[in-house]
Amino acid sequence: MANIGVPGLILILILALIVFGPAKLPQLGRAVGQTLKEFKRSTKDIVDDVTEEFTLEDKKEVDVKKNTNA
Fold first, then answer.
1. d(C-alpha 20, C-alpha 40), whole Å
2. Could you give a single Gene Ontology term from the biological process aspect (predicted)?
């Protein structure tokens, strides 16, 4: 993935200003922010679920090994 950099970001912002106009930019920014927030929350939930599942499986494996060695 290529890095955009500051000049590229400025160009994108200028194009957004031209296309959407100054009245719509705050609404657009708010919508993008809410979308990113929801995406981050969903990603965190998935990672937490997977981590919890692996932790439970590891505990089961340890219990099985303890029972077979005892």
1. 26
2. protein transport by the Tat complex
Residue 33, pLDDT score: 92
pTM over 0.85: no
> What pLDDT score was predicted for residue 57?
86
Residue extents of the structural domains in the chain: 23-70
The answer to whether the CB of 33 falls within 8 A of the CB of 25 is no
Contact call for residues 28 and 16 (beta carbons, < 8 A): yes
Going from the first residue of the chain to its last (70 residues), give the mean pLDDT of each consecutive group of 10, the final group possibly shorter: 81 89 88 94 96 87 75
Distances (CA, A) of 27 to 2, 18, 21, 32, 33: 28, 15, 11, 9, 10
Distances (CA, A) of 69 to 13, 57, 65: 65, 18, 6
For the chain, the distance separating the N- and C-terminal CA atoms, rounded to the nearest angstrom, is 53
